[in-house]
Amino acid sequence: MTLNDLFQIKETELFARKKIVLRCCMAAGCMSSNSKGVKEQLEKAVIDAGLQNDIEVRGVGCMKLCCEGPLVQADPQEALFVKVTEKNAPSILTAIKGGKTDVTQADPHSAFFTKQLSIVLANSGVVDPERIESYITQDGYQALHDVLTEMTPKDVVETMVKSGLRGRGGAGFPTGIKWGTVAKSPGAKKYVICNADEGDPGAFMDRSVLESDPHSVLEGMAIAAYAVGADQGFIYVRAEYPLAIARLQTAIKQAKIMGLLGAGIFETPFHFNVDIRIGAGAFVCGEETALMMSVEGKRGTPRPRPPFPAESGLFGCPTLLNNVETFANVPAIYRNGAEWFANIGTEKSKGTKVFALAGKIKNTGLIEVPMGTPLRTIVEEMGGGAPDGGQIKAVQTGGPSGGCIPAEHLDTPVDYESLGKLGSIMGSGGMIVMDESTRMVDVARFFMEFCMDESCGKCIPCRAGTVQMHNLLEKILQRKATARDLALLEELCDMVRNTSLCGLGQTAPNPTLSTLRFFRNEYEALLQPDAHGPRSTQTETTTK
Amino acid sequence: MSVNLTNPEQPPVKPVAEAKHPSGDKRFKILEVHMKKLQFKQDALIEVLHKAQELFGYLEDDVLLFISAKLKLPPSRVYGVATFYHFFTLKPKGEHTCVVCMGTACYVKGADKVVEAVQNQLKIRAGETTTDNKVSLLTARCIGACGIAPAVVYDGTVIPRQTPESAMEQINKWVQS
Question: Does residue A39 surpass a pLDDT of 60?
């Protein structure tokens, strides 16, 4: 494979392209509403009408507006058909020929689409995720070529530092610094791991990226491997995402056949292989040390750091671990330059962030916005507010490790620091909108139950603390608790946060603490008067 | 050399390197071929367990012992891993499975009411199987279908926007069949 071969594939593809392209969403959301059947019927209708030379029916990845699926978009007309059924196929053909149709259409120029800025999702909904040629047509793998032939690993790391990209898994550690640390660590064998164990309930960005554009993740991993000097990569995917696993397997196979993975990539001495590791449903495996234990085929329990994975990670070798979205950003950065990327976003948070917008909101789906976009823009303009004229009460970000942001703080820009100040976190990108009917104490209990079930049991504060906090929240909900219990709950939150071993325990109290901060009245309304009078001001240290 | 010579009182716990499993079940052979493909690597344990569950439907003791022997891992390790991860089940599932997603998006949109309705109808709790072995009710952490919440997976097919009524309808179809 050479650069010329890439250009040739692109040209052949563009030459064979038909005048009209009907893009059918084939991501998991639309597939569950029978988008496969819709695609088959469209293909049949095209053949019936004798238009197979003019119209291409292409299965593509997520087209973002998941609530209206199955989605079909026609190019170049831009018409976006929503809630398409199998019976609608002939009618869609009439419509793109200029006739009338009764199929519902959405406005592709509504705020939901126009306020987005796509870097990670640029190919999502455009390329056929099951064909590598489709990705190459969008200049795929050119960044890898340039990196391998024109840059030294040191340059690659420097460019990454300059771009200012921060980890998209939640904590926001600068990616360039991480790459530099692994590159400097001594060791003959190094690994690159892609964390696709998207365990946060309410988040589906990584699933969509893997289903819609798996090659961008592979290309990003290969560039990272060259920068740090690794020759083996692993993608750790949740077992709950069978479609993403299947598409990744196809993508890896195709890339290997084309010589874009394996030995001597682009006729350079660089070689890199990627294997898939399938998770088995443990939230804690999203934590890096636990994830590596799981890749090694063991129980996914975290271990204390240091040593950090960058020094001693998988099988004791230096390991680079990044999130799916982080890797998906990489090819674009090397294609367009670090300055281009650093110009997007805010001072400390560069680039864009993908959010999975869900819950009590009109437009649910996937959005990618520049960092620093106010929450209000996302929720009210893009999301269209609460359905049926309801009032938005809070927005939950960061899943069980995050917090609830009340409606009065909706003008907060989304970046790592601003969300942190409100007691929430950026997290991997789940954004659940809650309306007035949602009881915040119940939400806190829901997340605590989640953490209680998912605690791996290795350290006591998390294992026992989450159970006790859950019991207290349950007691409050049953209207059996007093002010004493509430004080005890706060004490426990503080203790678990400060003494747990890994991120799961350290962040488990976050939903409770943030709802206590902004919705304390809801807790207090459920409290009973204390038979023994108010608690003394002296702090009690004994807990039962 | 036979195992019995070194340990005369005890019958061999491990199935020896012959092709056949004493039970004569062909699925053991398929599982072994899969392990061979993974070069009997110990770090592939989770992959092997996935395959075993796919073949047998659940992980019975026999299967776990078979895997532990083939990968040369102590049974405690295999059992420990199998019980750590939610995806693996040590009990057989019913003929049909109904998995209700209890992710945050589904929860705030009423997945808890769907679970409650199914529980009341089948007289079982989440995670259990009906006595006639027909339906298993499970809950999932999040299946990543938040855009179409609340979602329920009936026998592997994700169905969007469920209500207690629509769930009842599907369950009744199974119960009556």
Answer: yes
Q: Which residues of A touch B108 (CB under 8 A)?
A: 359-360, 432, 434, 438, 443
Q: How far is B160 from chain A (nearest CA, A)?
A: 7
Q: Which residues of B touch A359 (CB under 8 A)?
A: 104-105, 108-109, 146, 149
Tokens 């027909």 — which residue? Answer: B134
Q: Which fold has domain A140-342?
A: Rossmann fold (3.40.50)
**Closest-CA residue to A430 (of A121, A170, A192):** A170
Please list the ranges in chain B whose pLDDT falls under 70: 1-20
* Residues A336/A342/A346/A351 CA torsion (nearest 10 deg): 40
* B124 has a chain A CB within 8 A of its CB: no
User: Which part of chain A is CATH 3.40.30.10?
Assistant: 18-108
Per DSSP, A63 falls in state -
pTM: 0.92
Residue of B39, B78, B84 to mutate for A, most A C-beta atoms under 10 A: B84
CATH topology for A441-525 is: de novo design (two linked rop proteins) (1.20.1440)
Report the CATH fold assignment for A18-108: Glutaredoxin (3.40.30)
Q: Is the peptide bond before B150 cis (omega within 30 degrees of 0)?
A: yes
Domain A352-438 has CATH 3.20.19.10: no
Look at residue A133 in the predicted model and tell me its pLDDT.
96
Taking CB atoms and an 8 Å cutoff, what residues of chain A touch B59?
none
What is the arithmetic mean of pLDDT over A458-474?
A: 97
Reduce the DSSP state of residue A452 to 3 states and report it.
Answer: helix
State ipTM: 0.89
